[in-house]
Amino acid sequence: MVDSIEKIVSLAKRRGFVFLSSEIYGGFGSCYDFGPLGVEMKNNIKKSWWQEMVRQRGDIVGLDSAILMSSKIWQASGHLTAGFADELVECKKCHKRFRSDEISRSKAKNQKSKCPECGGALTKPKKFNLMMKTYVGPLEDEASITYLRAETCQGIYVNFKNVLQTMRLKIPFGIAQIGKAFRNEITPGNFIYRTREFEQMEMQWFCSPKDADKFFDYWKKERLNWYLNLGIEKKHLRFREVKKSELAHYAKRAVDIEYKFPFGSSRSGGEAGWREIEGIHNRGDWDLSNHSKHSGEDLKYEGYFPYIIETSAGVDRTLFAFLCSAFTEVKGGRTKTTKSVKEVETVLKLHKRLAPIKVAVLPLVKNNPEIVKKAKEVYDVLKSHFMCQYDEVGSIGRRYRRADEVGVPFAITVDFDSLKKNDVTIRDRDTMKQKRVKIKDLILCLGKQL
Ligand code: ATP
To answer: Is the pTM here over 0.70, yes or no?
Structure first.
């Protein structure tokens, strides 16, 4: 577990996980780009979620709806009215803007709120809508206004009938979707924790109102287990029941899954570090009844509006949590490259399913053409089965260290014996144990462990 956010930011940049968006122009509005390793890891997270939520079940189907939708949807969902707004205060002196719940949290009891930057007086809170506005078509008038979606789930609700009918489903069932969402956050920050463009993995479970509480508890447990099974320690995860006064406009009940990050505290204050990574919401019949009313389409099922239990996770936030949780420092080092007891080596102990690169292929030395040729042959065979990397630069110890730092579970070394015996060593990232395996058995052997 990492002890400071800076270590993750530095590793992420240095090793190609995450870059600042528009960096050569000085960065842009707290947006980030995912580099070669970041995109692999992100895809692995999404694949693991899809596998668990859709492929391994018979009662959840997938969807990929458009980001741009009729603005009437956002009217019906309540996002354009009071519902989807944070309270904003502005400093009268330096004109910086803050979310008022964050200011009130940081101030001591009975103390008047002041600007956290310059100590100036603050304006009264006013509502600030988080929807990102845009125009569709050649005319920039009222009629062409729409919004980038602020949550992926509205695309699911408006397709409820389409999916129900085409897939001949019966309640209870779920619809899952992964995709981008946009919010004009007042105070983005903490690296990729809060950004204005992010990706969500959402599942909407349609059930009868009388079963809603039962399924709420079921999904809470299922979702927590997903993080545990992917290697986050139990002591770094918890549930937080969202207070009635904090509930979103659509929610009857909400529980956040929180992870203990190396910064800040949750919106509700409390113990340092605990921050939401996923929300489990009972949305009641808010969405289907409102879309029925506004569209004129009957979205009832057997005469009633199904209740919706939603599980809503952020891809970027969970990636951040997985990175923090996997980050391990070994004082005095583990490989032979470490010269002093003070030196620290980093090992990213990511779950094998999440690791961006699964196998590193390393010739023991690069000045022996036969060894290099054999190593390249091994790489060519493996690369169509696993995400592989070929690396011949520097000492073998340095190369192990480089692979450990980005969480490569297995490093394969081709050495002098390999030329005679047609075998290689496989080194395990976590135990550093090595075993010899025949080249012809490699795919099977690695496949079993990955
Ligand atoms: P927060 O209280 O942190 O603003 P929220 O309660 O508004 O989050 P939800 O609307 O429940 O969040 O969204 C579900 C999930 O989507 C969150 O748990 C988070 O993982 C992700 N998410 C929401 N907003 C952002 C954001 N600005 N940047 C990155 N991820 C986000």
So the answer is: yes
